[in-house]
Amino acid sequence: MNKAFLVVLAVFALAAKQTFGQMDCAGKPDGSYGAGCRSYTACKGGVGTLVTCQPDQAYDFDTNQCEPIDSVKPPCGLNSSACIGKPDGRYALQSEQCRWYFTCQEQVYLGANPCNNPPSGTALVFDEVLGVCNWKYDVSPPCGTKQ
Q: What Gene Ontology terms describe what this protein does at the molecular function level (predicted)?
């Protein structure tokens, strides 16, 4: 491999870590900021630290910290019946206005992910036809407004 490619790859990896790993805490009050079900950013003095939940825990948006997965309500809590009878794949979480999607594998619920960052955003919804997060106007009902 040439050196230029490795440099570009390293720059991309660093940018991705900043973009997807934790949020920028500059100017934010101290506290926890959720970004998904498996981790959150703890901000203190303008510096963010990525906190990853233990395997048997999930981020609880009510307490703003990792809690035992069976005590956390959806979208992050364990929803053991959601995948019964469903083929492997990703599905819109309609109870959360399709702003989240969950993954099933061998009829086991693997967890939920937000379409928006922060998760309270409303711009994107999950498109089950394409299997990606998409603009509401490009997604058919019940998740979107496409006619």
A: chitin binding
Residue 32 resides in a domain? yes
Predicted structure pTM score: 0.64
Is the bond preceding residue 87 a cis peptide, omega within 30 degrees?
no
Q: How many domains does the chain have?
A: 2
- Of residues 78 and 32, the one with the higher pLDDT is 32
The encoded tokens of residue 110 equal 């693997």
For residue 85, give its domain range. Answer: 78-146
- Provide the percentage of residues in the chain whose pLDDT is more than 70: 83
The rounded mean pLDDT for the chain is 82
Angle at 11 between CA 112 and CA 32, to 5 degrees: 40
Task: Evaluate whether 92 touches 128 at the Cβ level (below 8 Å).
Answer: yes
Distance CA 133, CA 62 (A): 24
Residue ending a domain, choose from 74, 92, 109 = 74
Q: Is residue 107 part of a domain?
A: yes
Whole-number Å distance between alpha carbons of 140 and 136: 8
Maximal C-alpha separation, the chain: 50
Check: CB of residue 86 under 8 Å from CB of residue 59.
no
Q: Both 100 and 128 in a single domain? A: yes
